[in-house]
Amino acid sequence: MALLAAVVLFAGFVVVVVVGTPWQPLPEPPGGHTPIDPTAGLAPEQVDRAESFVAALRPASLASLLLGLAASAVLGLTPLGARLVRALPTPRRGRWAWQVLLGVLALAVIGRLVTLPLSAYGEVVRHRYGLSTRGWGLWLRDVVVSTAIDAALTAVTALVLVWLARRLARGWWAVAAAGAAVLVVVGSFLWPVLMEPAFNDFESMPAGELRTDLLALAQENGTPVRDVLVSDASRRTTALNAYVSGFGSTRRIVVYDTVLERLPDEQIESIVAHELGHVATDDVLTGTLMGALGAAGGVALLGWVLTSPRLLRRAGAESAGDPRAVPLLLLLVAVGTLLATPVQNLVSRQVEARADVHALDLTEDPEAFVAMQRGLAGSNLSDPDPPDAWHWFFGSHPTVAQRIALAQDWARAEREP
User: Fold this and answer.
1) 237 φ/ψ angles, rounded to the nearest 5 degrees
2) What does the pLDDT look like over 78-128, one tens digit per residue?
3) Were 321 and a residue from 90, 128, 166, 412 both cysteine, which residue would form a disulfide, CB within 3.0 to 4.6 Å?
4) 76, 328 in Cβ contact below 8 A?
5) What pLDDT, in 10s, does the model give residues 227-275?
């Protein structure tokens, strides 16, 4: 039954992906699409620097991913993880619940410690190339806070799953799947408001021409915003970014302070227009629906997998309601997340391209858009033309070269309707 429900939910997910993804964000202009320049028009020294940066960082990122997955597999597919959970000192009252909560915390800390040297190396590389401005104290604080938040959310989720499996031996996965869908929806609305302040401070942008223009841009987009905020991103990075956050009365435009220091107003407006494009086309709502269906399908599939006696024996657990199954549960979630990554990124790249087209329609300034893309690529050390396999799996946005070619297509279509 769980497997059938998973198939139905994933089928619904595929339908939403097929129907809701903008597969052709911009119709082909007269004369065909603009050939993509692999350098994106960047100076040779900029391309060399970006390629050197990613060449130093990519192996460490991939190694960190594989090492974390391997550690999770060792703990989840052998009795080692089960023994760890069982050995944790817990109160006698509610012992199973404490084993779940403390077990998740211990596993999260182990996973972080295993990959911490590679994370530190990545920070060294970002410092070397001038992309990170964090001191090591702030870096460590960010590691601790992110680990604590992830562990707390995972622990509560695991606790609910194990509790349901103990109370409802057969149909626990159905209730859990519905709960996962609801959690995705609620999290989509609350995450920006609750999590952003954990890492950055915000203040209202002072009155001036840029603030007025951004508010007017939002009004023209049909997206009333509560405020225009400036984030103190320079405490951590030299990267450039802006985004639209929140829903309804909490919606605001957020601009990195690094953007204000280094980009002209028309390029900042182009970035914000892109972000407003996501709001205009309800990308967050569509993404939330996809996430809810995917999460529910994943939990249903999890319910089916955890009926395997052989797999449970290998993990040193008796059932899905056994706290010793937590390491296996976390491994299965990690594998599922990894397998879903290329699908998520495929949809994301198309959605981002549509937001680019919206920004061009809204500002009618392709020159500013192209200059902005090159400025972001230079400041963020983005590889303008990454390897196809890497971009297919990990690329959540079109490449810089693709985005500039899109802007050139848009300009040609406007000149030759």
Assistant:
1) -150, 160
2) 999 999 999 999 888 889 999 999 999 999 999 999 999 999 999 999 999
3) 166
4) yes
5) 899 999 888 888 888 888 877 667 889 999 999 988 899 999 999 999 9
Cα atoms in the Cβ-side hemisphere of radius 13 Å centred on 230: 16
Question: Whole-number mean pLDDT of the chain?
Answer: 92
Instruction: Tell me the pLDDT tens digit for each residue of 172-192.
Output: 999 999 999 998 888 877 776
Retrieve residue 59's tokens: 């192996």
> Checking phi first, is residue 280 left (phi over 0); if not, alpha (psi -120 to 50) or beta?
alpha
d(CA 413, CA 417): 5
pLDDT tens track for 27-39: 888 778 899 999 9
- DSSP letter string over 254-288? EEEHHHHHHS-HHHHHHHHHHHHHHHHTTHHHHHH
Give φ, ψ of 253 to 5 degrees: -90, 130
Could you tell me which of 10, 8, 4, 1 has the C-alpha nearest to residue 298? 10
Q: Which two three-digit tokens encode residue 346?
A: 């495929």
Band (pLDDT 50/70/90 cuts) for residue 285 is confident
Rg of the chain over Cα atoms, rounded to whole angstroms, equals 23
SS3 53: helix
**DSSP secondary-structure letter at 37?**
-
Determine the pLDDT at residue 236: 87
Read off the pLDDT of each residue in 302-323 and give the average, rounded to a whole number: 93
Q: Which of 228, 226, 221 is nearest to 242 (CA)?
A: 228
Long-range contact list for 137-142, CB < 8 A, 24+ apart? 138/235, 138/236, 142/199, 142/236
Q: For the CA atoms of 74, 79, 84, 88, what is the dihedral angle to 10 degrees?
A: 160
